[in-house]
Amino acid sequence: MGVALRAASARADAIFKLAEQISGQPIGTLCAEGPLDKLTRTDIAQIAVVATSLAAAARLEEALGGPISAIAVAGHSVGELAALCVAGAISAETALALVHERGTLMQRDSAACDGTMVAVLGLDADILDPICREASKDGDGQVQIANLNAPGQIILSGDRSAIERASRAAKDAGARRIMALTVGGPFHSIYMSEAAADFARSVAKADIRAPKVPVVLNATAQPSVDPDDLRAELATQITSAVRWDESIRSMARLGCTSLLELGPGEVLTGMTKRILPDARAVPVGSPEAIEHALATIASSTS
Fold first, then answer.
1. Which of 26, 167, 211, 236 could cross-link 89 (Cys pair, CB 3.0–4.6 Å)?
2. pLDDT by residue for the chain (302 residues), tens digit each?
3. Pairing of the two strands 223-224 and 258-261
4. Does 77 qualify as catalytic in the annotation?
């Protein structure tokens, strides 16, 4: 993650060095060499993902010859901090300091419970929501919808036993597939409540300004340029569902027709193509991908 970006851009390399300084962890080395079990630990993974996203943004600005011009931005879960930085609401240093705190708190809360997450394919929220309520009502663990990613792709999060009950019920209700996710804990669930409360105190002290462009928020799927909204969102979304499907549709209503995925991988690009088949969605997580994306967008608008 981010190796080619660091090699191509001194600004991208500086982002990783700042992440290492803030976290006290060898983020660059872990992204390049692993070990995977340490890199995927949430207190490491979160800052690594945001550092890679900000490094991609830095390289993209170099390729553009100036600031990124966007109609709106959005970030999936922890990516919301990178989105706030790209929108000018927070500095890179603030984004990395906040994500370090967020990951540390969520790692702490994850260690205090036996939680996990699963992807449910082929069922919608109106079916899964009552399934989660039924699986949670006996008091032996809670489960809830964590991500509404794309049509027919929903993530559940919570106590392992409650997840198992909900998974069985989802299969009975016609789910096409249920996939266990390799995650460090039950993110975007009630089990992150203490992390959310503690993180809210850190966010309250952070320098958050009005962004240059609207940020479409995870918890509401609505755009905002109000710093108070952004502060509330950063804590709230830790225990709330990520409304990604609605967020992408909200960006389309704002006029976004080309959507660039800044960061590692192509997961959001794939989701976006399912949500908006006619939109131009391209990943820009490497120097080569950035050049390809800019050429693709230029050819489609010429």
1. 211
2. 999 999 999 999 999 999 999 999 999 999 999 999 999 999 999 999 999 999 999 999 999 999 889 999 999 999 999 999 999 999 999 999 999 999 999 999 999 999 999 999 999 999 999 999 999 997 789 999 999 999 999 999 999 999 999 999 999 999 999 999 989 999 999 999 999 999 999 999 999 999 999 999 999 999 999 999 999 999 999 999 999 999 999 999 999 999 999 999 999 999 999 999 998 999 999 999 999 888 877 776 65
3. unpaired
4. yes
pTM: 0.95
202 is catalytic: no
Kindly report the CATH number that applies to the domain delimited by 3-110+191-301: 3.40.366.10
**Which pairing describes strands 115-121 and 223-224: parallel, antiparallel, or unpaired?**
unpaired
Topology classification of domain 114-184: Alpha-Beta Plaits (3.30.70)
The residue annotated as part of the active site, out of 53, 188, 189, 250, is 188
Closest CA to 184 of 2, 39, 16: 39
Question: Which of these, 96, 73, 92, lies nearest to 83 by C-alpha position?
Answer: 73
Q: Where are the domains of the chain?
A: 3-110+191-301, 114-184
Instruction: Of 93, 66, 83, 92, give the one whose Cα is nearest residue 225.
Output: 83
Token match 């660059």: residue? Answer: 28
